[in-house]
Amino acid sequence: MRFVVRLGTDCNPTFGGKSPEILTVLDTLVLSPDEVCGIVVGPNCGDPYNPLDNWNVTFPNVPQPAPVPPIPPKPGSPTLRVLHLSDTHYDAHYKAGSNANCGEPLCCRQDDGVPANTSDGAGKFGDYRNCDTPLWTLENMLQKLSAEKDTFDFIYWTGDLPAHDVWNQTRQDQLNILQHMVSLMLKYFPGKPVFPSLGNHEGAPVNSFPPPYITGKYSISWLYDALAQSWSNWLPKDVIALVQKGAYYTVSPHPGFRIISLNTNYCNSGNWWMLINTTDPTGELTWLIKTLQSAENAGEKVHILGHIPPGDQGCLKAWSWNYYRVVNRYQNIIAGQFYGHTHYDSFQVFYDETTLSKPVGVAYTAPSVTSYPGLNMGYRFYTVDGVYKGSSYQVLDHETFFLNLAKANVEGKITWEFEYSAKATYKMKSLYPSDWDNLIKVMMANQTVLETYNRLYFKSVHSGACDYTCRYARLCETRSARSSDPSLCKDLKV
């Protein structure tokens, strides 16, 4: 069998200028076209089989401690407040009044021209159609948050800075956006700790993140060197070499508390370089285990940041399942997981590997800043058990804020509104994994609660009634913290 690759202009938005890289990858493969299509596109396209995809991480020869449930903090205990920004997708070419129905994957841009029908014109502050974030809306949000900077302690910034014009981006374009966004963060949050992660849209082409053994013109060093320089505004010198190697790192902002930022592009099925060999690229999961074991030995609690949620269906199965094993092994010290990528507001519960019934962890997926596609804009604050001896560093509550784009465009002014508190809205005693598992059970039994979750999932854009397909999708996603595992949803009552 052989590959026949047709990459005309009709494919450009999909492949984003990848054709030379794709051909280079295909030249090295032992996979059939059917297998490649199944891996990259999904099982509806072909058989997602890769003989190099069967690998397992190795854990230290250290007995796993017995599970210890988090201990709720005493009243009046110190707390931390963390701002989570994700998926800004800043579009430097956004133009109000331009054609929002341009026929491309990204519209509302200067080159799209003025539409004949004024209803097709892009909104002043953003648009629900396939449009990204204007600079003035982005800066309005940053100005508001800057005025509140004394009310929070640090920022989790989980990637996807460029716009969605993936067919039109160059390496220099991506570097320009990176530098501009970093300058904005420094301008509005001087002296505030920022802990970044790398998104899949920072690559050029999009999703292209070759492992270190790929050298020469396809090497990723052009990006990782720039990240190391930009992120050095917030990160200590001793982690910069690791950023240059793989765009991941770990820091300890307080005694007893550690932050780990992962590069989840090595689990991305859209990263064609992973077709060559998916086995723990750059040794990232091996490094993660080593870092977590050191944290366990030192009595530290850990927050893990990344861009693509490990349970996302675009996360390669072997990487996702191995990460699930890591969370199970170190469940006592992983106090929080924070991701972006989907643009939706959601969560995913991790369960014990033996029975898939006991909750052992939870990952939060923050709402996107961008409205793409068909959403309001949003950001989130987490209240976390604070800095004191014996702190769990668990998330105690989260509060989400949003911009109602329709209202803003009609009124001609931006108003960022409080959307909801997880604890109050869902009537949760706490936000531990067991509480989120209980919420899933409540949503299975109570249509009203599920409808509320579905509305907030889309950042309060009217999404209509949640029918059976919708209910199953929302519930199954909350239980699917590892990809390609239908067994996690087999007992759902919808």
Automatic annotation (TrEMBL):
Zn(2+) 1 binds at residues 87, 89, 160, 343. One of its GO terms (molecular function) is metal ion binding. Its main location: secreted. InterPro entries: ASM_C (IPR045473), ASMase/PPN1_MPP (IPR041805), Calcineurin-like_PHP (IPR004843), Metallo-depent_PP-like (IPR029052), Sphingomy_PDE (IPR011160). Binds 2 Zn(2+) ions per subunit. Disulfide bonds join 102-107, 108-131, 267-315, 466-470. This is Sphingomyelin phosphodiesterase. It comes from Plakobranchus ocellatus. The lineage of its organism: Eukaryota, Metazoa, Spiralia, Lophotrochozoa, Mollusca.
